[in-house]
Design goal:
Blueprint (H helix, E strand, L loop, with lengths): L2 H31 L4 H6 L11 H9 L2 H32 L3 H12 L9 H11 L2 H4 L1 H25 L4 H9 L4 H12 L1 H17 L2 H6 L8 H11 L4 H32 L4
Helix pairs in contact: 3-14, 4-8, 4-11, 8-11, 9-10, 11-14, 13-14
């Protein structure tokens, strides 16, 4: 390896180390300070804790009603991501295999809808579902899932659409000759082949829905329906400046989605490169 090449590699690693420290340092501060008392945090926020005190986590779980908000977030995220994946895959498959002018125009409208900001439609949306249909009072969590399916389908259809075009039609013809109908061909042949894109879409939607604050804040009005971002906002307003409770609460809020991202991040790049770019 030439000297110029070695210098380039060393500089690249130095840049990566610097950026790694910049991104990881806030998480480091959050973890070390979650075991300290309020006075210790204010006196020495950068020092390591003298002992691992898990009492603050137990107090947060109790006062925050953590498991109720965690359950609500899991329910909303799971069903939203599940239905988005299934409906988007079926829609993209139908549009690719039945390429009519109507389907192509409808696909173009779905792609164009991704540039519409949510803030421009949230007031009429809440007026219709809240004041006119009263669904916000009757079934807020099912309504929230339906809204997520609607807002998340456009990008998912777009990604599936690119991947379905790369699947040879001969495989489906062979399945039909073996006696499968269209529905069986889709679920037994096509859908398993969409697994890389499905994983990517699932991870992206989980990150979005789990961390979303704006839409749940408009739909969920009762404490026992709150998801974790809403609950964290309420908890922050109640225990403002009480850092020994706020920092463990913040850590508990982001920990599940952080673990999910660390395990699934490699599938995001792989799925995007195999689906959306084609």
């Amino acid at each position: 390896m030439s000297a110029r090449r070695k210098t380039s590699v060393i500089l690249t690693y130095l840049f990566l180390i610097v950026f790694f420290i910049i991104f990881v340092f806030p998480f480091f501060l959050m973890i070390v300070n979650s075991f300290k008392s309020n006075g210790q945090i204010l006196e020495s926020p950068f020092s390591l804790p003298s002992s691992l005190n898990f009492g603050h986590f137990a107090e947060v779980i109790d006062k925050m009603n953590f498991f109720v908000s965690f359950r609500n977030t899991v329910v909303v995220t799971f069903f939203s991501v599940l239905f988005i994946g299934v409906f988007a895959a079926m829609t993209a498959y139908y549009m690719v295999r039945h390429s009519t002018k109507f389907n192509n125009g409808f696909f173009a409208l779905m792609v164009a809808s991704m540039i519409i900001p949510f803030q421009s439609i949230m007031i009429p949306l809440i007026y219709i579902y809240g004041a006119k249909l009263h669904w916000i009072d009757a079934a807020p969590i099912p309504l929230l899932i339906i809204l997520y399916i609607g807002f998340g389908s456009a990008l998912s259809v777009f990604m599936y659409h690119g991947f379905v075009k790369s699947i040879p039609y001969e495989l489906e013809e062979a399945s039909l000759l073996d006696g499968c109908n269209r529905r069986q061909t889709f679920f037994k042949i096509v859908l398993p082949m969409l697994a890389p894109t499905s994983v990517t879409i699932a991870i992206l939607n989980v990150l979005w829905i789990w961390n979303d604050y704006l839409l749940p804040s408009l739909v969920l009005t009762q404490d026992n329906h709150f998801t974790m971002p809403i609950k964290m906002k309420v908890f922050n307003g109640t225990y403002m400046n009480n850092w020994e409770l706020l920092i463990p609460a913040l850590l508990l809020t982001i920990l599940p989605i952080l673990i999910a991202y660390l395990f699934g991040q490699r599938y995001i790049i792989r799925g995007v490169s195999q689906g959306a770019i084609k």
